[in-house]
Specification:
transmembrane helix, Probable membrane transporter protein, TSUP/Inactive_protease-like, mainly alpha, membrane
Length: 312
């Protein structure tokens, strides 16, 4: 019983982070299961089964708080499902450890870009919409990495959409989390076909599921009211820390370099968040907040605004 409660708390904490920042549920939960001796394939399979419930609850909560852009969900989820099914099938028989350093390097660069842009850059939205030729590759790559690596949908999709500058952060997080339901279903089907049900621990799955479902509405509420600068700085920090850790482990230098790299990253991350908070307050006081703030409706499309104007 104690172990179930611990796993449920892990699922709760992971979903609070994932629902607020658009990433980290899979990475956090899979890491714990692998550390406890579960094979990578079974750990990823267990997490994705739990994610069917947690992502459904998270998507419904984000929709309730107005954090979802359904055009993005439709164009992102389907290629994500294809990539997830292929990734699950591949992980059932192959290892993707050799590709981990390269993937981590790409994601690290994206994390630095997102953190710097939202902490120090302008938040004026770029004109235009995200097109399928951008979203489809992001979905395919993110889905494949998510299933084959035990996590990666959020770390790929969230920084890619944030970096585009065309979608406000809360709708990026909400749309990515809502799309993940389809990705989780496809990945689970791939694992069930490749592994069967042997070795799956439904106690683990149920604990992660319950914790995630409890946390989902709280996280969806938090992301709606968190200022864009602060959210961007936090997301960038999560991406950087996660992928630096992957790189240090891949090159087997975590024991020697981690003792100074991690504290340095923690200081830089904390400093970025503090700076982002202060800059947001200063811009708001001066009336220079460029949008994307709490409750901002700049994510509506032109048709929605025209319809609203016609009704008025």
């Amino acid at each position: 019983m104690r172990g179930w409660i611990v796993l449920a708390l892990v699922g709760l904490a992971a979903q609070l982070v994932d629902g607020s920042l658009g990433m980290a549920y899979g990475v956090t939960s899979t890491t714990l299961l692998i550390a406890s001796g579960t094979s990578p394939a079974l750990a990823s399979a267990s997490v994705h089964l739990a994610e069917i419930g947690t992502t459904l609850a998270s998507g419904a909560s984000h929709w309730r708080f107005g954090n979802v852009d359904w055009r993005i969900v439709g164009r992102l989820a389907l290629p994500g499902a294809v990539g997830a099914f292929l990734g699950a099938t591949a992980l059932s028989s192959l290892s993707t450890e050799a590709a981990a350093p390269y993937m981590a390097g790409v994601l690290l660069a994206l994390g630095v870009y997102v953190g710097v842009r939202f902490t120090t850059g302008s938040l004026v939205r770029r004109p235009g919409r995200l097109r399928s030729r951008f979203l489809v590759p992001v979905g395919l790559f993110g889905g494949f990495l998510d299933a084959s690596g035990g996590g990666g949908w959020g770390p790929v999709a969230t920084p890619a959409l944030l970096g585009s500058g065309r979608v406000e952060p809360r709708k990026v997080v909400g749309s990515v989390d809502t799309s993940e339901f389809v990705v989780a279903v496809a990945a689970s089907l791939g694992f069930l076909l490749g592994l069967g049900t042997a070795g799956l621990d439904l106690v683990v799955v149920s604990a992660l599921l319950v914790g995630g479902v409890v946390a989902a509405p709280v996280a969806a509420w938090v992301v709606r009211y968190l200022p864009a600068r602060v959210l961007g700085a936090a997301v960038g920090g999560v991406i950087v820390v996660t992928n630096v850790r992957t790189l240090l482990r891949a090159f087997d230098v975590e024991a020697s370099a981690g003792v100074w790299v991690y504290p340095l990253l923690a200081l830089l991350w904390a400093g970025a968040v503090v700076y982002a908070v202060r800059r947001h307050r200063r811009e708001r006081a001066l009336g220079q907040d460029a949008g994307w703030g709490p409750g901002d409706d700049s994510g509506e499309d032109e048709g929605e605004r025209e319809l609203a104007g016609a009704r008025s």
